[in-house]
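Repro:
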Amino acid sequence: MRLLIFGGTTEGRERAINEYAQGNNVLVCVATDSGKEELPNEIPCLVGRLDDTSMRALCLDYKPDRLIDATHPFAAVVSTNIKKCANALSLPLECVTRDSDVYADFSKRVLWVNDAFHAAQLANQLTGNVFLSTGSNTVDIYSNIIDTDRLYVRILPNETSIRKCVEAGIPSSHIMAMQGPFSEEINTAVYHQWNIRILVTKDSGETGGVRQKVLPALEAGIMVIMIRRPNV
């Protein structure tokens, strides 16, 4: 069977390895080089962001028997494009999902918001330094609302992510470019080093290391703002 797997996530990587071990032909599509680095060299991988048109072209060329959407829970646009592609070409589509933190034991101790804009508005009403563990794609939303002297961010260690932070006016000393996952001990040290009073994170599930971020933050008396997953 020929499988086309979308997603540089843990779930996507594990699925690709398992399917390859079973003798299936596997092609993995990831957005960044960091996603490719986690895959074994013997599994073919394409790096780059695809829209629905380029996805269809890839499918017509590769001719997969099945599409597997193992993208990040917040990659709503990508998931929508994958679904469009599957429908247009009448290809079976399987979606791999993570458990939500809505049902986690800490869920009632955090503040839930619908998106980055509302998270930024809420954080701006509070006092103290703000730690963004939400990636680089929405950093400009926060910098347009919150004084950048209060913003500290952790992003993937690639040129695109760093450039977005610089363009958003984040001071270079407030940028941590590291590849996760991160332990509770590392997160605790970061909160202490930067005197963080507000943590903004996303409902990325256990695989996304949310628990390891939230629990030490709550223990330190840090306000936690959690962004709900988009409806796809």
